[in-house]
Amino acid sequence: MDMESASSVVLQALTQATSQDTALLKPAEEQLRQWETQPGFYSVLLNIFNNHMLDVNVRWLAVLYFKNGIDRYWRRVAPNALSEDEKTSLRAGLITNFNEPVNQIATQIAVLIAKVARLDCPRQWPELIPILLESVKGQDGLQQHRALLTFYHVTKTLASKRLAQDKRLFQDLASGIYSFACSLWSHHTDCFLQQVLAVDQAHALSSLERTLLSLKVLRKLTVHGFQEPQQNMEVMGFLNAVFERLKQFLECNFLEVHPCAFIPLIQRSLEFAVSYVFTAAGEGLVFERFTVQCMNLIKTIVKNEAYKPCKNIEDSKPESLEAHKIKTAFFTHPTLTEIGRRLVSHYFLLTKEELAMWEEDPEGFAVEETGGDSWKYSLRPCTEVLFLDIFHNYSQTLTPVLLEMVLNLQGPSNVEDPVQLLMKDAVYNAVGLAAYELFDNIDFDQWFNNQLLGELQVSHHRYKLIRRRVIWLIGQWISVKFKSELRPLLYEVILNLMQDPDLVTCQFLFLNVSPVDDFEFRTEQFLPYLESIFSLLFQLLQQVTECDTKMQVLHVISCVIERVNIQIRPYVGCLVQYLPLLWKQSEEHNMLRCAILTTLVHLVQGLGAESKNLYLFLLPVIQLSTDVSQPPHVYLLEDGLELWLVTLENSPAITPELLRIFQNMSALLVQSSCCCAEFAALVVTA
């Protein structure tokens, strides 16, 4: 039977084998099974699956029969083995062109070529790799992709061989093509980044696929192709380049600038980021900066407004609905549960470095935790922001998860178990961050009385971790859900903690509790504690050295003075004497001087007419702050004008010293902003 007749018969059998009719299917399968050992059968299959005009299901089946035949009959020693002549012809036919239009068939062809390569390359098939490399260089997009796909599967298969001789052959191959593979990856990566910036979505996706295939090839070559990769400059150069490229990928703001164009990449991006950050796959493989970028990627996708449908679905854009559908399909209950648990139980845990810093430099640790310059670029704030965004968007799923974690930690923790202490600290941190989301789920007043208050009274040195976190937790909830009747008890607790020498950082945490800086504050409840708290705050202001901490202390002092007003007068003597020194020391710290100005505003209001006793210090401060010819005015002007205004309002009489400041007024009215000019006009009126 000639090839044309054989092709017709085999094609008919394959067509019947794809039928749903068992009367046709069974005989066809039996016939194909008999032909498996017939000379020329695989050549006919090759012609059939290379004919793009035929039915896809038929071509798919032809590929599968061909692939199974390789496993059974390609080896020389196999029963009914293929002849060497037919194998030579088949090898040539497999790499004649790389233009398969159907992705699934293209993948199967690449796999069967790799199977043949495992047995014949390079000895019987030396031309395979050169032809693949040449095809990868081609300008035709489809041919380039299919050749690269085949190149990957061939490389993957050859790298898996374990005999010593095969390993040496693969190492020879790797040394010969490594440079080319690196340049190929770099080229496709550059193309992808350029197309992303140009909002060329279709080409960007295509380039991304090529980039990933190139990277997979390099992974096999790098891991299995060199006995001592550290001695090879190209290998080490590639590994260094991976980190730089990864940074470019993750820091690319394409998602933020063109969210709709990014929709086709949402699924893949989430799979990538979540896999490395929230599953065992990434343990030990990722570094902090990489984790931060992955979390930022997840956060941006979760909270992106373009990916949220309108309340009235009919008003939503198709792109928003598509993005929302992808997100909903990805963020399943198990996925969200795992993310929530890992965020709290892994990323929220204080590290050894943080604990050591707390011991060695309590103030520095407190500054870092409350938003120091290095803190804002570290993993912890990124983790907390992601937790808040995910909790806000998926609170129905995550609230029970967090409440279960709280329930598991009820009662005092074992001071001899540092893991349990760290876990409770992390869980309480999560409850504090999600305070507004948990409003209806936690009876905080009851929790405070039955659990938290007791934990604040545990005096063991190791329990300071929990005492510190509990007082912070109360600070997060105090403006959310905390009965005013409990305030006196809270003030007593704060006083005890601020005097606890074992818990220096709790003094700083008082600044975050701000029991005087919320709507439920009652002056009469606070007055019995005013003298002690104000005295401790003043001591703290003197003791701290960090500029940020002094600003925080001054903020709380200002709030106290503002709340109690004239009743502060008996207790401000020491502060009045200290502020001139602090002003002088802060000459290079304009933001600290702004905080001093704000404190002075409230101090003048509290002292009323008695503020005239401050004029020796007060008036030069106003003079400097409102002089537009002085460089610091850029920072100090608005606060300085406010201080000037309240000073005039509380002055019992206009003195020559007060009038002298009006020398600054003309320049203010001419040069300053509209806002400051309006304020200046108020000063004139006053």
Folded structure, characterized:
This is Importin-11. Its main location: cytoplasm. Keywords: Acetylation, Cytoplasm, Nucleus, Phosphoprotein, Protein transport, Repeat, Transport. One of its GO terms (biological process) is protein import into nucleus. With 686 residues, the protein is mainly α. The chain contains 34 helices and no strands. It has helices spanning 3-17, 22-35, 41-49, 56-73, 84-94, 103-120, 128-136, 141-159, 164-197, 201-224, 233-251, 254-257, 266-278, 288-303, 318-330, 333-347, 352-360, 362-369, 379-393, 395-407, 418-433, 444-456, 464-477, 487-498, 504-513, 523-543, 547-564, 573-585, 590-607, 615-625, 633-649, 656-660, 665-671, 674-685.
Identify the notable features of this structure and list them briefly.
686 residues; mainly alpha; 0% strand
Give a short overview.
70% of the residues lie in helices and 0% in strands.
> What is the gyration radius calculated from CA atoms?
36 Å
Major sheet, described briefly? none
Low-confidence stretches: 372-376, 504-512
Strand content: under 5%
SS class? mainly alpha
Shape: elongated
What's the total number of strands? 0
Oligomer: single chain
Q: How widely separated are the two ends?
A: 113 Å
Count of helix runs: 34
**Averaging pLDDT over every residue, what do you get?**
88
| Fraction of residues in H or I helices | over 70%
Protein name: Importin-11
Pfam family, one: TPR_IPO11
InterPro entries: ARM-like, ARM-type_fold, Importin-beta_N, TPR_IPO7/11-like
Keywords: Acetylation, Cytoplasm, Nucleus, Phosphoprotein, Protein transport, Repeat, Transport
